[in-house]
Design goal:
Blueprint lengths: L1 H17 L7 H9 L115
């Protein structure tokens, strides 16, 4: 399992490096880095936001494609219709978050906490969930791609 996780992490880093720069909006980035505020419809694609605590703020309809979001906290946050496709969300805390119609296509959620998250119709196609804690508190097993096994 450790080899699998390391391979996945290496692939994420390589994919992020190959994706030159995503054009996140600097004003949105500065707003989020200051903290304590919602950021609706923000463009943070490709941004490095490692370790941030987003609190219960809303990031609804925001673009976080390919963002580095390791060890972030979105606990109880409003994330409906946000796009986390290809994002690195290892060890992220999404407990109690509202993520209806949110895209996690190809995102890496290894070790993430989804306890009590309201997934609704979230798109988890090709998302890596190995080692994540599912909405019901169950730990996702090896090879949990797109679905918690």
């Amino acid at each position: 399992m450790k080899k699998f996780v390391l391979v996945v992490l290496a692939l994420v880093v390589m994919a992020m490096a190959a994706t030159k720069t995503m054009a996140f909006n600097q004003a949105d980035f500065d707003k989020v880095k200051r903290g304590g505020t919602s950021c609706l419809n923000c463009d943070l694609s490709g941004a490095c936001l490692v370790g941030l605590n987003f609190g219960t703020n809303s990031m609804a309809n925001s673009n976080l494609k390919g963002a580095s979001l390791m060890n972030v906290s979105f606990q109880n946050a409003q994330l409906d219709r946000a796009d986390f496709s290809g994002a690195a969300l290892m060890n992220a805390n999404l407990a109690g978050a509202m993520v209806n119609q949110t895209k996690f296509r190809g995102a890496v959620l290894t070790g993430a906490n989804l306890t009590g998250a309201l997934l609704g119709t979230a798109d988890l196609t090709d998302a890596v969930l190995t080692g994540a804690t599912w909405t019901d508190g169950k730990k996702c097993g090896p090879n949990s791609i797109g679905v918690c096994r």
